[in-house]
């Protein structure tokens, strides 16, 4: 399976009151909500996302942690990070 995010590079504002990790998490959450990232789809490696997005690796790690806490992705050691299926009670 090929791990590809949307072809457009997101624009993050380092001067914003919203931390970069929240901006990155919001971007991925938006891609999931829009159906651009399907349940079960593997996300690119955190270091690859950091390079693609032009932000720090630790920032991407924190964004992925935020997404895991929201239940939007799940990470499997040695396998990667995957989009989760929406809850059964979701519209």
Description:
There is one protein chain. By secondary structure, the protein is mainly alpha-helical. The chain has one domain (20-83): Arc Repressor Mutant, subunit A, CATH 1.10.10. Helix content is 40%, strand content 9%. The protein has helices at 20-33, 46-53, 57-70, and strands at 73-76, 80-83. Strands 1-2 form a two-stranded antiparallel sheet. A hairpin with a 3-residue loop joins β1 and β2. α1 (20-33) crosses α3. The longest helix has 14 residues, at 20-33. The model has no long low-confidence stretch (mean pLDDT 90).
Question: What would the principal axes of the Cα set say about the shape?
Answer: globular
Q: What separation lies between the terminal Cα atoms?
A: 28 Å
Mean pLDDT: 90
Report the sheet with the most strands, covering strand number, pairing sense and barrel closure.
2 strands, antiparallel
Radius of gyration: 13 Å
Task: Work out the helix count.
Answer: 3
CATH domain class name: Mainly Alpha
Q: List the secondary-structure elements in sequence, H or E.
A: HHHEE
Quick one: CATH superfamily? Winged helix-like DNA-binding domain superfamily/Winged helix DNA-binding domain
Low-confidence stretches: none
What fraction, in percent, of the residue positions are helical?
Answer: 25-40%
Structural class: mainly alpha
What CATH architecture would you give?
Orthogonal Bundle
> How many β-strands, per DSSP?
2
Q: How many structural domains in the coordinates?
A: 1
Task: Return the CATH topology.
Answer: Arc Repressor Mutant, subunit A
Estimate what percentage of residues fall within beta strands: 5-15%
Task: Record the strand order, biggest sheet.
Answer: 1-2
